[in-house]
Description:
This protein is α/β, with parallel strands linked by helices.
Amino acid sequence: MGDASSPTTATDLLSASVQQSANKKQGLGRSPLGLAGTTMQEHEIRCPSSDGDHLQTAAGSHHRLMQPPESPTKYLPLLAQQQQDHQPVSKSNISAMMSVPPSTLQDIPRAVMFSPSNAMETPDPKKPEKGATLVWRDLTVTLNGGKRGEAPTKLLKSATGFARPGSVLSIMGPACSGKKTLLKALADQLPKNAKLYGEILLNGFRQRLPYGTYAYIRPDEELIESLTVRELLYYSALSQLPSGLPLSKKLSRVDASISEMDLEDLVSVRIGCSHETGGLSQVERKRLSLAVHMLSCPYLLFLEEPTYGLDSVGSVLVIATLRKLAWTRRCTIVTTMQQATSHAWPLLDQLCLLSLGVTVYFGPSRGALDHFANSGFPCPRLQNPTDYFLGVIDPNLDNINSDEESGDQTWSQIESSVALRTLEATFQASSDFGLVQSLVVQLCENEGPILESAGHAGLLMCMSVLTWRSCVSMGRDFGYYWLRLLLSTVLTLCIGTMFYNLGHSFNSIRGRAAAIFVTVAFLGFLSIAGFPAIVKEVKVVSQEIANRRSTAISSKFVFANLLASIPFLLVLALVCSSISYFLIGLHPSFSHFMYFMIDVFMCFAIMDGLMMFIATILPKVFEGIITTLCIQILMLLVAGYFRLGDELPKPVWTYPVSYLSFYTYAIQGLLENEYTGVTFPSNIPNAPAISPQVTLQTTFQVPKARIGKWENILILAGMAIGYRVLTSISLILFQALTLHKHTTSRTSSRPSQDE
């Protein structure tokens, strides 16, 4: 038996695939030829079902997938090195070309990486396919114009195709080709100003995608960077999986996802911002995102640009992982790709090429080379096929000059519109197009099971998980808590020493008010240090809302975040109040000190709620910080210190701005707390002492109707909760504005020609 790392003949190729093609972790056996599936033991896989984990055998369903790959000569136009040596495509050859050890790709069975799927085979009407079969026919998507009277724009034109279990469909095309529109239409994620015509059938029925039966993964998935890999998966499992599923099965799904995505060595590593700072690399983050979404065992997996931001090695690993998921989980995977590297091209399964919303090719990826050659655009031997395909159909490359010195008649000498019409006509006249149309009709008639959701996590479980997750994240985030604690401690020390031991003289009346105002105002300003951490959390929950299509999670997150922040803000308020209160020498009563601390705590809670609300509207950190700062300055101006209440202009500044400023109630409550029960000597000799009522109503013009420090605390508490409610409403509106129209917008009518 030859060395698996250097196969040179077809016999050696078969022998080389013995190299752990059957993954021991998944229980695959080896056949005498080294290809899993001939004499292998039945492999049990986890499949999604309405009653939790359901085990079914995959040996029979994958028999065709496990057959020996097609002749490697189809790869010869791509792999120039192997073309000259007449070597077949193998994992060892690909790993050598990419300068990575063969063990990097050893986990993935050879049949999964290189064999064609059964997507183009005729379905058996007597045996409905297990999983999710997605079919679309004459699909057209138009986008309403932004101005009244403007004609709708056609983003997709009469697209027809299908995606079957166990296959990976890659949708490719240049910019503005409609590939993302097609993906969003299939995933029912179109925006509200888009209109869809045609049919989209799931297992032969028109049905919505229930929760847990699908996953939509964006290229910029947000991950909680302060959590470890295992913690993120554990919290995700508890908050996603149905409450009826036992905890042991939830933990087993976490372990299975870790093993499946090859994250065993990273379970205790914090996700972090980047690989350079000790976190995960881009490829590892992609695999972790896949692991999070695969916890619910979805039937359908939609991915936007899964290779975005990755190098050639990372792209190969991600595509190979997707093929592995399709093979082991019997998932139906649909993904968009800008392009594939020459190393990733042999791993592509099904291919859909789009340009200007028109389907140029649909079928096996290897057949695209023949299609372009039959249309008069053969791919050069030493060129990446996807680069060449996109170059032919990309209208942005029309102005590129051809190579006049060589005199070659290349695609750059032909306008893209001509090439596009030629490719479209050739494809519609080909046998591949007829096969696609025939399969679409058969798959529409071959009705399968209606997908049902397994259920959601319970309210108590979800609230508990979100609260604890936020608590852990806050404690580990230096910017949210520790930096604020450090800066606030230094600030209160400075204020305390500056206003040290004011005493009870007449001059201390103004000094105490100034110390109280400066302490509350500047501690509020320092709260902005936690804004970047809050923005990250809001992005994560916005992503979770979009993925789960449930507005209930917004309110759960908002109030779970409030509960999680209470211990941190209490400690912060206790430290700052203890330093400033006793250094300044404020009211000696302990009850007055407790009120001071509660007032400061309420200000912190309000600031967190205000920043969270702003973060939902302005998710960019710089814009959010500037906006928060401006709002705070306006609130301070009308708080009654720079201008007394009676001196403020009545319209706007008194009503309603001063009543909306939380600093107004916070400072008035602290002034009453400080001056109640304390008299100060008059600056006039032999004059009576100044009473608290005179100090509050005359000196600071605090209205008598507002004198009630505990009423001020209640108002502050209401504001803290009110900002959280506004945050929840903002997240709900965010979902309403960004989510799609549901199946009510799916109509079989055809658009008019003038659209």
